[in-house]
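Problem: given the chain below (188 residues), write out its structure.
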Amino acid sequence: MSPFSIAVLAMGMSIDALLASLGRGAGTSRPRLAEALRTGMVFGVVETITPLLGWAAGIVASKHVERIDHWIAFLLLGVVGGRMVLHSLKPAAEREDAARGRSWWVLLATAVGTSIDAMAVGVSLAFLQVNIVVIACAIGFATFVMSTGGMMAGNLIGTAFGRWAERLGGLALMALGTSILVSHLSNG
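Solution.
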C-alpha cells in the first residue's frame, strides 16, 4: 500500500471518532485540553487495536479464500464506506448521539462502537501484502489527532461539517476498495 493510500485509509477510519468527538465537544461548554487529549487517546488506542484484531482473524481465513481476497477487500471496504455515507444522510434526530455521555465507560464504549469498521478493514487487509502495524499505527495516530481536535472544535462548528466529513470518508473507503479490486483484476 502506498503512503497516500495509508493516509486515506487512516483518515477514513478516523471519521467516526471525529464525529463522536465533535458531539462530545458540542455537548461540553469549553472542553479542557486534558479532556480532549483523554478522548483522543482512548479513541486512538482502540482504533489501533481493532484493525490488528481484524487482521489476525483474516490471516486465519486467508489461506481458504486467497483466490477471491480482492473481492472480499472490495466488498468489506464498500460496505463500511457505504454505511458511513448512509449514516451521514440520516436526519439529525435519527443520528446516534453516543458522544454526549461523560463517563469513562461511555467514552470507551463509544470508542469501541466507532472502531468496529476498523476491525472489518483489518480483516480485508489480511488478504493483501501490507504492513499491518504501520497501517494500524497510522489509523490510531490519525484518530488521536482528529478526535482531540474534534473535541476542542465541537462547540464551535457543531455537527454540520461532521456529516460532510463522514460522507467524504465513506466515499474514500469505497474508492480504496475499488482501487484494490481493479489492481488485482488487471494483474491477473
